Amino acid sequence: MTNEQNLKYRRDVDLGLKKGTSAIIQNYFDSYPVMRMATKYTPYRTWGTARRDGPYCYMEVVKKAGLEYDALSHEKAVEYLSLLKERRDYRLQTGTAMVKWQNTQLVSRAREIAAEKDTRFQSIKANLVSMGWEEKDFPMDNKAFRELVLKDQKLTPKVWQNIKPKLEPMLEKSRLERERRLRRLNREDAVRSFYHPMSREITDLPFDITEMGFFPKHFELVMELPPIKALLENDTETITEEQWAEVAPGVRLIAVKWWRDSLKQLVDSLENGSTPESGETNTADQGNVDSETETMGVIFESIEALKARLSKATSVFSCTVRFCRTTACFHQGIMHTFSAHGWSSPDGLFSYMQPLRPEGQTLVKRLLKDLHFDPVTVNSSEVVSEDQSQKDFLCTRCDKRVARYMTFGELIQHYLDHQKWFENVTEAVQNSPDSCYPSWPVDNELPTIVNDHDWIYRDELLVRKDDYRTRDEVIKLQKEFLKGELNDPTSDTTGVVPLATGEMKLHIQMK
Prior knowledge:
Blueprint lengths: L3 H4 L13 H5 L6 H6 L6 E3 L2 E3 L7 H12 L3 H57 L12 H7 L7 H47 L15 H5 L2 H8 L7 H32 L10 H5 L8 H15 L5 E4 L7 E3 H12 L4 H7 E3 L2 H13 L9 H4 L9 E3 L9 E2 L1 H23 L32 E3 L2 H20 L8 E3 L5 E3 L5
Antiparallel strand pairs: 1-2, 3-4, 3-5, 6-7, 6-8, 9-10
């Protein structure tokens, strides 16, 4: 039989027709749209471009129609082309309908196969459940198991007797593996239940966070500790209190060292002005440390000394998370990172808490002096309230008619924001072109911008802490001022929004 590809019409084949006849005739015999729809002819693609090997028609048909076309007069040739067009449209319509019918049959058959597979699976499932197996014992990730249960073949008693001996070993293996994993999870949960109270006792933070667990960045690192790893590898149902009591001293020593090292890095960053580095602990090396070199008492003494340093009012940190502008003392910073950013490990502490820059530390000392505290000896608990959220501090550099009460951390951030604004505006004025000041004399000095919140070169009082009576008087004064401004027709009240709490908020829009 002649190869089909050799019978296809190509432009380089001479059919003995008049010039241009083949180009006119071939379009009426091109069945490419239908053939492509049936996926029997796929264009060859390379680098995103399609290439077709000419129309999908046969040269004998084109040659016969071309000879008939050349033999006709002009009027008859036009009628002949109309006839060819009608025939081509009929073929395309019929072929398209046939392809759609074929695709419908294929989809219908696919659904039938899926239904047959599901029926077979449900029958096998019912038989296995009656034998005592559970669906969670089915190893659906096992290819051999899927080939046996998901098959488009009816499950007859004979077929069931043939596949039953093949399924039982796979089910037994899957059940044993599942039970082994479940026991492993039970042992890990037991480690968590024992380790959580120990970690909370070691950290001894002045607030209660019941869900907080002192773990490294990944809990798998804790599981790799030599004493805990030995308990986890022992395939028992769970870990008893007696088993934990045997390894608890070693685990406690390692956890205490983790906490000591975390505090030490924070203190070093605070005193040296560097960012604390986050690193994963080498649990294998820590587990092999000789306990005689560092006793528990020596480590706890070091921890108390570090905590005493971090409890100073000058131990202020800023949050490094993007778009977070929180500034707080040590304990308040830990509460913030846990509640706002989900900190539960030393790595999170390193990632989110960063000491202030030297100018920020100078600001903190200046604020403490204005509050009549000794920056060297005062603790943060003496400056801020017990819950560390009471807004008692008022900026004395702001107009008292619009100034707002802030926490100590918000007050620090308030001055830092003003300093940053002053630096940005000063730079913008210095680098601005002369066209920005058309009326300014040439070679004259640029406008002078005064930083009224400067804490280095200005000696005025920065802050005051008011009692409830004084604070109520200030708020009353602010309400009266706001009321007068809103009722004054000559005043610009755009952006002034009264709040339900009696405070006020100014929205500044850049124009």
